[in-house]
Amino acid sequence: MGGTMPNPTLESSSAKTETSAHAKPTLLDAIRKIFSKTQDADEQKVVARRRRFVMAAVLGTLGVNFLMFLRFFFPRALYEPKTTFKIGYPSDFGFGVDTKFQNQFRIWVVRNTEGIFVIYAVCTHLGCTPDWKPSEHKFKCPCHGSGYDSEGINFEGPAPRPMDRARVELDPEGEIVVDLSHLYRWPKGERSQFNDPGAILRV
User: Is the pTM of this model over 0.85?
Assistant: First the structure.
């Protein structure tokens, strides 16, 4: 009869404490799970992006290498400017130096009392393109100062000989045809080719 009687109030309080103690971890666990799932999803997205980037880089590299491989089957062709072309009729050219074909064909068309001839606009010193100076009535090389008269004959500077002349002839329709693959020269100390057939049109 002397034993201690259980206190229902204490037992109830203890049970509530145990219940609340068990409830809190459950809520925290749920929150942790939510955040862990979010982190997992973000990590998966990052991994997926990395995989796509790596795949794109690999495919791009393979594609470039494949194109380089195909390049060997299609060698690059270098197209040289035309060496034969028409410049018009003799009546289109007056006396003096005509420079309208200098940029396109690198030539000057000259007409004098002897006829029409075409000077190849290349300095015989180092290959620069001289300029026609109408006020000075001469060709002047801007690179090293070589000077040529209106017929392309050198008279000053380091140029060793006159500029070359291109072959000229008339086609069946009467147009002037210029052929830069056939040049006439006047080497220093040698015979001039400027009076050879094809070097000048006697018109």
Answer: no
